[in-house]
Amino acid sequence: MPDPELIAQRLARCVELFRDPDAKQVQKAEFRTLLGLLKDQTVVITESAGQLVVNGVAVQGKVGSLVQRIGLHNVGEITIQPHAPPSDVFELLRALSDQPALGTEDIPTRLRQAGVNQVTVAIADFAPPARVSGPTSRAASESDDVLGDLERNPQAPDVSRLLDALVRQVETAFKAGRFEEVLTLIAGISRGHQAVPRGSDARRHYGIAFKRVYTKAMLDRLAHLVSVPKHRSDAILALQRAGAGGVKVLIDLLVAAPTMSERRVLFDALSQMKEGTGQLVQMLDHRQWFVVRNGAELVGELGLEDAVPALARQLEHPDDRVRKAVALALAKIGSGSAAEPLLHALRDRSPEVRMQVALGIGGLKAGALAMPLVVAMEEEQDEAVERELILALGRIASPDAVLALIKVVQPAGRFFGRKPTVLRMAAVEALRLAGTAAAIGTIEGLVADSDAEVKEAAQAALLDLKKRR
């Protein structure tokens, strides 16, 4: 009889492959192997506190991805009958591999609609228990009452007692698998925490409560709920309060996420984290290119200046996709410490990487980058990149940047005594973006330019500037 751990590993592997549209051949081979393991016994799969259990045996192997999918779909139990038809097992794998979304059917409904009868799935008890008489009803009522008391007065004199009662409710609900109730309670505590002034005695009690509830298993479960639309905002709020621990579980999921939609959800969640974001810098030294890219996008979005040295190291990465993300991140950070790495990126062999630098630069904080951009413009051979560098100077709008634009917009130049019209027009647009007195004065002087296109661009720029006043 096959080992439960082997069954779990093969099942996890099949689910992973079903999520990869380019792995059809490997998928078929693994699927046949799995069917062979399922022939002679009933297989019952459950999940308990973040651990997979197969036929009553807790599995220790590498099945984390399967645990994630089970949690994501709120699955409480899977039962596969001996000699289940391949089509039944196929439908199960396909359902587990799909991303849940609002308006879609749950897995039991999908299997019934597909005519599956040898594989059954039961949904976990996510909803709060029904109101019946007896201890269960009293406990649920007590939970509602306590949370209501806390929400009405987050700094109540007996806040320590209220929080202690809620923590016990969280622990009880978690052990019972009532994860929606868990999330409701933790989100309620988190909202109370937000309303309490820093340094207050009440805030200290909230901190103690968070330390009690934020176990590794709890954080894993909360992180999975980020991918469920109706739970997303509360799950993110709860993970924000977890600090570095919340960031870590989201990073782990992001690294494992194979689809763009899943990465986007986790990316958005990480970008809302307020503490522990220093861990994102560690992603920049990961061996897998897409993890480095994701990390670069995140630190750029968050403007983490501490990430500049690690980003600079990745400017030599062999993958253009990584260097593009790194260049854009450095441009978004835009601090003085980023100037030298950005100048290096502006000499990258790939025009797309150089373009990312130009597209990402802008704002007053990028004032230190004006002169590096001017130097890069003089060296740039790609006209499209040069145009974007000119526009970046307009977004910077510092005195040095505007002075450089005034020189660019003048007709005399290196090409047979005149500059290309497309670059002069870009300079007019950049001066419009800058909108300083010197920039406006220069545009006014161009309304009589001998180049009809430059003249027209100057007139349009002045008209737009007048509308903005």
In short:
This protein is mainly α. The chain has helices spanning 4-18, 24-37, 64-72, 86-97, 107-113, 135-152, 159-175, 179-194, 201-213, 216-225, 232-241, 244-256, 260-271, 289-302, 308-313, 320-333, 339-345, 351-360, 370-379, 383-396, 399-409, 421-434, 437-445, 452-468, and strands at residues 43-48, 51-54, 57-58, 75-80, 119-123. A hairpin with a 2-residue loop joins strand 2 and strand 3.
Task: Explain what the structure shows.
With 469 residues, this protein is mainly alpha-helical. Among the domains are: 120 residues, no CATH class; 81 residues, Leucine-rich Repeat Variant; 84 residues, Leucine-rich Repeat Variant (Alpha Horseshoe), CATH 1.25.10. It is 62% helix and 5% strand. It is built from 24 helices and 5 strands. The chain has a 5-stranded antiparallel sheet. Strand 1 and strand 2 form a beta hairpin. The radius of gyration is 29 Å and the shape is globular.
Spatial strand sequence of the major β-sheet = 3-2-1-4-5
Helix fraction, binned, reads 55-70%
Radius of gyration: 29 Å
Series of H and E elements: HHEEEHEHHEHHHHHHHHHHHHHHHHHHH
Low-confidence segments, ≥5 residues, pLDDT <50?
126-140
Q: Helical region count?
A: 24
What is the average of the pLDDT values? 85
Largest sheet: 5 strands, antiparallel
* Backbone shape: globular
Tell me the structural class: mainly alpha
Q: How far from one another are the termini?
A: 80 Å
Q: Strand tally, please?
A: 5
- Strand content is under 5%
